[in-house]
Amino acid sequence: MQRVGLALLSLAILSGYVLKFTPIENEALSWIITLALLAMLLFGAFLLYRGKQYAGRALATSVLDDDRPPVVYLRPFGQDESMAGQVFMAMLMVKMYRGFASNEEQLAQAVAPLGPLLAIGQPGERLPKPGAIRVYASDTEWRDVVTHWLRPPG
User: What single string gives the DSSP state of each residue in 54-97?
Assistant: First the structure.
């Protein structure tokens, strides 16, 4: 899913550059092409983001096999980027070279040699946000989960 999204994004951007230098005399056709490219950009960005969410959910099971202590990421849920926010900001800031990686995804990559980046997931989330591996706990349980993560091994 991520590859299809990235391919659509690349195709839309490349097509936009080609069409920029191609004279189109029919104004209605020019608008239709522009709207189609915009739709392709948005759909590609959506597929890329959704693919990252599914990959994040699948990655959560591999944490059980990791012997290294986790890197615990505590943050307010309001700090999590929404899908729309991440996609639009990535497109505006042309983060294509980093694969539209959010700050949290970059943090997860940076600490990966130390251990997996773990965070408490926001209750009610259907799919995790890309970045830290999310564990879901209730309001009464999350402190115990974090305390367990912070205990020294052994």
Answer: HHHHHHGGGGGG--SPPEE----GGGSPPHHHHHHHHHHTT-GG
What is this structure's pTM? 0.66
108-143: per-residue pLDDT in tens?
889 989 988 999 888 888 888 888 888 888 889 989
| Helix, strand or coil, per DSSP, at residue 99 | coil
- pLDDT exceeds 70 at position 63: no
Residue with tokens 């915009």: 38
Rounded to the nearest 10 degrees, what angle do helices 27-59 and 83-92 cross at? 120
For residue 118, give Cα distances in angstroms to 28, 75, 112, 125.
50, 11, 11, 16
- Whose CA is closest to 44, among 16, 21, 18? 16
